[in-house]
């Protein structure tokens, strides 16, 4: 989702590879949602939009293109956001996981909607703190759209942005597989 958090895409790709040899429930993984941002090393997509502020939520906020968290000209304006919305409509997921990176030792398992127990279970496997509030406003975020407004259990794994992907994968493999195989 954020191109300057490349370990997220790498870990998602490693999860796909790992799951290829296992039985698991149906799941859909978008490992590289923001390829333009990833190629440029930018948070935003190629049109200067922060995809995690572009969801059509009640609290979506208009802002200037120069805003580092610019959420688009209008809610759901970006093809990347539309892809996720199409996938959610098509598959009606029972739970959603987003993988991000964060700076300054603020790594955590954030959740939106009815996902506290799942977040706590994952936390026993990776040792991360569970947080219901990331600590700053996130208007137009996927967690708000899915978790808060539609009550789809939504987990946001925030990994340290200075940790190599292979180490992130080792840190979180068990927690990620637990998310995948979780039964309601
Ligand atoms: Zn992010």
Task: Explain the overall architecture.
- There is one protein chain.
- With 184 residues, the chain is an alpha/beta fold.
- It contains 6 helices and 4 strands, in the order αααββαβαβα.
- Strands 1-4-2-3 form a 4-stranded mixed sheet.
- Strand 2, helix 4 (116-126) and strand 3 form a beta-alpha-beta unit.
- Helix 1 crosses helix 6 (165-181) and helix 4 (116-126) packs across helix 6 (165-181).
- The longest helix is centred in the last third of the chain and has 17 residues, at 165-181.
- The two termini are 27 Å apart.
- The structure holds zinc ion (ZN).
- Zinc ion (ZN) binds at residues 1-2, 5, 100.
Q: Can I get a quick summary?
A:
The protein has 184 residues and is α/β, with parallel strands linked by helices.
Number of helices in the DSSP assignment: 6
Radius of gyration: 15 Å
Poorly predicted runs of 5 or more residues: none
- Identify the quaternary structure here: single chain
How many beta-strand segments? 4
| List of distinct ligands in this structure | zinc ion
Derived from helix and strand composition plus strand pairing, the structural class reads alpha/beta
> What is the rounded distance between the termini?
27 Å
Q: Which outline best applies?
A: globular
Helical residue percent band? 25-40%
How would you sum up the major sheet?
Answer: 4 strands, mixed
Tell me the strand order in the biggest sheet. 1-4-2-3
Order of helices and strands: HHHEEHEHEH
Q: How confident is the prediction overall: mean pLDDT? A: 96
β-strand percent reads: 5-15%
